[in-house]
Amino acid sequence: MKTIFLAITLLITTLSLPAQPKVDVHKEMEFAKAQYELMLKANKDLTRFPQSVKKEGILDTRTSDWWCSGFFGGSLWYLYEYTQDNKWKEAADKWTMAVEKEKYNKTTHDLGFMLYCSFGNGYRLTKNEKYKDIMLIGAESLATRFNPKIGLIKSWEEFKGYDYPVIIDNMMNLEFLLWAARASGNSKFYDLSTTHADNTLKNHFRKDYSSYHVVCYDTTGKVLARKTNQGAADESAWARGQAWAVYGYTMMYRETGNKKYLNQAINIAKFIANHPNLPSDKIPYWDFNAPNIPNEERDASAAAITASALLELYTYTKDKAHFRLAEDILRSLSGKVYTANLGENNNFLLKHSVGSKPYQSEVNTPIIYADYYYLEALLRYSRIKI
């Protein structure tokens, strides 16, 4: 009887709690428009892409060969998608075309971020054949980094003495190759993407479905070591890595219909949602196992990526827990703690992201990809009726 009484009391208490307000997408997008108008005025040099803010408060920009070069153009495409205003289309085209030469870049595994987040969104929204042609060349460049004997796309040329490191981030670049498979009719892009995803699923995850950051292979595909580069420790759960993982396997299910990818995404989402170190506002610490929690920096970028992934995941699972967590994250990101004031924050939308704490790089600063995935999540949220 006592158990039943407690359950009824809990239910009554839950039902009496005031409903949380919906995220006001229109309000947040109007702010994004105003802030990014200032961003465009402050950034005229098409060879320097807004990236973050240096410790001195100075804007940090990078060249087109930096892995984040596609995110500014991609963010502008999202503003065009929301507004249908040609001024955003024109700005997005300029900053997208500024990355074009990277289609020949065979030294990076990040061409998906660089080309698909920019040209991919542009092609999706305009069907401009020029964008398609550029991406197909870029996909061929990225495919050169796949070694069929190992069955994975090589991330870096070397890592701590290992010659074939593969990072969880690589899952995100498969979307580009899967698009190329459809656009070109060349099944090699599809085959190498599923092979990479399968081997990552096999070797990159712990029993609790958390992901290692770096897995190092020999020339036969044998795992030599499981390490981290940006996490707190080799065995810790680096927050952005978990976000890449849930996003990547949700995307793989969309593109292939293979339930093993959906199940993997669901299990990664459970790991994130149920982690005892996930704060009440649902914005994770930069690493779920960072040594000085709660006195550790949060990572708004990991939160934004996770929210976007969970919103897509919800469309497949109809599990309201996925939607609610994404909504809670967006509600927090859209609040005063994480959203900048107009004209501040060097015109980035979000504050409090972490690039690499171990290298003391971009710690507790705005970062361009946080803005990109936040805008993507807002658009996805606006399309869901619940």
TrEMBL record:
GO terms for biological process: polysaccharide catabolic process. Pfam families: Glyco_hydro_88 (PF07470). It comes from the Bacteria. One of its GO terms (molecular function) is chondroitin hydrolase activity. Gene3D superfamilies: 1.50.10.10. The active site is at D110, D169. Substrate binds at D110, D169, T228, R240, W244, S356. The keyword Metal-binding does not apply. Residues 1-21 form the signal peptide. Keywords: Hydrolase, Signal. InterPro entries: 6-hairpin_glycosidase_sf, 6hp_glycosidase-like_sf, Glyco_hydro_88, UG_Glycosaminoglycan_Hydrolase. Belongs to the glycosyl hydrolase 88 family. This is Glucuronyl hydrolase. It comes from Pedobacter kyonggii.
